[in-house]
Design brief:
Length: 447
């Protein structure tokens, strides 16, 4: 049974967006004022400040029918970083963008324009403290535990902005979150503690947008959906986790556990007069995992294992009360990085396992195998760089491939063009976007 995205009701609350932007700006100003206060006192002689940023233009044209311009985003990114003294450093960064494609065309619903036409946000903004083996970061930050290519595996801490699926750079997909990241390093041991008091959820495209995720309903079925009610930001509802790493004879081994909220709301539903009514609910989730990495003869071997404990998953069963079941599921990858004749190669085998599989699960299999391959090569003193990435199922036709060419001019300008090609069936991870394949152009001026 295929999934189709026919109708989705998602309220756009402008006042909430303004409130978030205002609170972010206030937090940024408060942190800047704090650093200036500190610097004006005992540490003024050690103070160093550095500013950098970028202006970026992104254009995308859908090459599948109907062909149309899908993106004209103009983005401004600014970052201030500084050294207060030998132990204190800080960073303040923000981003704003405007995409006139939603005003210049009429083929997207107004809700899509309200969601993706413009945005202003505070990004990585934090204070760093170092003292011997101890490092402490307080503020809005990205915490990266995994290094998979193309998809996220052990990178479980931060919420993700998936309104363009997994196509943007990962550091822009991750949503920086307010919290504390405390680390201790001694010889071959590394320990890390994470506390996030402010909940962020994954952002997905609203109905009618280019990369809207389909809802679990039978084909040609009408449905409605309500936005989730987020838990309050308090100590009881905070997220907490830790990671412990040790190097055994060159083998870097890490184990981690993260008690969080599922950043994808569970799609609880009822059926009234044939209409599916979804209420998105936020559920607790415990995630455990391990990572491995070792270099042998200039080849890096790595692995990531992630266990999602009792995660709520949707099912096709009209007799079920809410259309959800709880299942453990395991995601892991085995990968390698190496270079052959100046070509950087990354290869990954990926597998998803649901030990107690239920045939009613939506677009899931007991075992799902896939692979990823990325090739990078520079030319003419790396002024030109070609990249090819393919992610594909090993069990059926479902793939994404992304060839691109980048030209760098001096220290400031970068130009990139390429394709994002989706192939597969409508119920596949990539196939559901087969009609959204595109060619893109990017120009970036950095300063």
């Amino acid at each position: 049974m295929k999934i189709t995205d026919k109708l989705s009701l998602r309220a756009t609350e402008g006042s909430e967006a303004i409130s978030k932007i205002a609170s972010s700006c206030f937090a940024s100003l408060a942190l800047l004022a704090m650093t200036q206060l500190i610097c004006s006192n005992a540490y003024a002689s050690d103070f160093k400040l550095q500013s950098h940023g970028s202006i970026k233009q992104e254009t995308a044209l859908r090459i599948s029918q109907p062909r149309r311009l899908t993106k004209l985003r103009n983005q401004f990114l600014l970052s201030e970083s500084g050294r207060i003294n030998s132990q204190l450093n800080f960073k303040i960064s923000g981003r704003c963008y405007y995409d006139p494609v939603y005003e210049a065309t009429d083929y997207y619903p107004k809700t899509v324009g309200s969601d993706q036409m413009y945005e202003a946000e505070l990004r990585d903004t934090y204070l760093d403290y170092s003292n011997g083996p101890f490092d402490l970061r307080i503020g809005k930050q990205q915490i990266v535990w995994g290094e998979a290519v193309g998809l996220f595996f052990a990178d479980v801490v931060n919420a993700k902005d998936l309104r363009e699926f997994v196509l943007p750079d990962f550091d822009m997909i991750r949503t920086p979150q307010w919290g504390i990241d405390a680390e201790y390093s001694r010889d071959k041991l590394h320990a890390e503690f994470v506390w996030l008091p402010v909940l962020e959820l994954n952002k997905t495209g609203v109905s009618g947008s280019e990369f809207a995720f389909p809802y679990p309903v039978p084909e040609n079925t009408t449905f409605t959906a309500r936005d989730p009610d987020k838990p309050g930001n308090n100590f009881r509802n905070s997220e907490i986790g830790g990671r412990l790493s040790y190097i055994f004879n060159g083998l870097d081994v890490s184990i981690f556990n993260f008690y969080t909220w599922d950043k994808f709301p569970a799609l609880a539903r009822v059926i009234n007069s044939g209409i599916y009514e979804f209420k998105q609910t936020i559920k607790r989730l415990n995630i455990a995992g391990m990572t491995f990495a070792k270099e042998i003869n200039d080849i890096v071997y790595k692995a990531e294992f992630v266990l999602n404990c009792k995660q709520y998953l949707p099912i096709f069963d009209t007799n079920d009360a809410d259309g959800l079941v709880r299942k453990d599921n395991i995601d892991y990858l085995l990968g390698t990085d190496f270079t052959v004749k100046n070509v950087d190669i990354n290869a990954q085998f990926m597998q998803r396992i649901i030990p107690k599989y239920d045939s009613r699960l939506v677009n899931e299999e007991k075992i799902r195998n896939s692979f990823a391959l990325r090739l990078d090569k520079g030319f003419l003193d790396n002024k030109f760089k070609t990249e090819f990435l393919v992610i594909a199922s090993l069990m059926n036709k479902d793939l994404l491939y992304r060839p691109s060419l980048t030209y760098t001019s001096g220290n400031n300008w970068k130009f990139k063009t390429g394709f994002d090609i989706f192939k597969g069936e409508a119920d596949g991870i990539f196939g559901k976007f087969e009609k959204k394949s595109r060619i893109f152009f990017e120009s970036t001026f950095s300063f």
